[in-house]
Design a protein that fits this description.
The structure is a single chain. The chain is built from nine helices and seven strands; from the N terminus they run βαβαααβαβαββααβα. By secondary structure, the chain is α/β, with parallel strands linked by helices. It has a domain at 2-110 and 174-207: Rossmann fold (3-Layer(aba) Sandwich). The strands form two sheets. It has a five-stranded parallel β-sheet with strand order 2-3-1-4-7, sandwiched between helices. It has a two-stranded antiparallel ribbon with strand order 5-6. Helix 1 crosses helix 9 and helix 2 (31-40) packs across helix 3 (44-55). The longest helix has 15 residues, at 160-174. Bound molecules: BIS(adenosine)-5'-pentaphosphate and zinc ion. BIS(adenosine)-5'-pentaphosphate binds at residues 7, 9-15, 30-32, 35, 52-53, 56-59, 64, 85-88, 92, 118, 121-122, 131-133, 136-137, 157, 166, 194-196, 199.
Length: 210
């Protein structure tokens, strides 16, 4: 099953993908996570993209497409994927059509006010990338990852200026994909301002039978 999760920052794409990957038996591939992993390992790619992510801008298409194309060659992607945060521009979508077209594009629908609430309370584990929210999805022990016990951190792009910029980038560069995939009849809208459990259930129903 080949799925794309599309939606503004903070819509819950990563949270839902982390739950559904095991149920659906396909890997959760987040381009944001791949970049953050490269940054923490201080690779050449990481050095190149660190400032771009912190400012909330998009990494150039060529670099992003090459990264995804390589990742999809791994054996675990043999039966499909959940792509979270890719494609994010029309050229990225056209590239994906050429090497592994998605069967369904799940569009997470949510308003800006809720996005700001979610992103300003998000905390992440620096080594595993596991995602929490101080109110909506808190860890068992305040400020600590449930499994590693590490101190949770705030993503650099969750500062208020970066959140505003990411929403603007989403509107201008990524939202046109809604029409792009709508025309191909592969789009399904999911109201994402519900509880995590409900959103997971709605997405599962929408992709059943693929
Ligand atoms: P990326 O990591 O993809 O960031 P994003 O798209 O901005 O999305 P987020 O991770 O912020 O949100 P999410 O929808 O995953 O929400 P989450 O589940 O965490 O990309 C980061 C950067 O990398 C980009 O800005 C860009 O620089 C670069 N990049 C990545 N892909 C690229 C590409 N294709 N091309 C170019 N550049 C690229 O949830 C958010 C919060 O809400 C959490 O705290 C969570 O606990 C909480 N929450 C989730 N669901 C619910 C719910 N139902 N109810 C209440 N709270 C909830
Ligand atoms: Zn995410």
């Amino acid at each position: 099953m080949r799925l794309v999760f599309l939606g503004p920052p903070g819509a819950g794409k990563g949270t839902v993908a982390a739950i559904l990957k095991d149920r659906l038996g396909i890997p959760h591939i987040s381009t944001g996570d791949l970049f953050r992993d490269a940054i923490s390992r201080k690779t050449d790619l990481g050095r190149e993209v660190e400032g771009i992510l912190a400012r909330g801008e998009l990494v150039p298409d060529e670099l992003t497409v090459a990264l995804v194309r390589e990742r999809l060659k791994a054996p675990d992607a043999g039966h499909g994927y959940i792509l979270d945060g890719f494609p994010r521009t029309i050229p990225q979508a056209e590239a994906l059509e050429a090497f592994s077209p998605p069967e369904k594009v799940v569009n997470f629908v949510i308003d800006d006010e809720e996005v700001v609430k979610r992103l300003s309370g998000r905390r992440v584990c620096p080594s595993t990338g596991r995602v929490y929210h101080v109110i909506y999805n808190p860890p068992k022990v305040e400020g600590k990852d449930d499994e590693t016990g590490e101190d949770l951190v705030i993503r650099p792009d969750d500062r208020p200026e970066a959140i505003r910029h990411r929403l603007e980038v989403y509107r201008t560069q990524t939202a046109p994909l809604i029409t792009y995939y709508g025309k191909k009849s592969r789009l399904v809208d999911i109201p994402s301002d519900r509880s995590i459990e409900e959103v997971v259930h709605l997405v599962e129903q929408a992709v059943r039978g693929l």
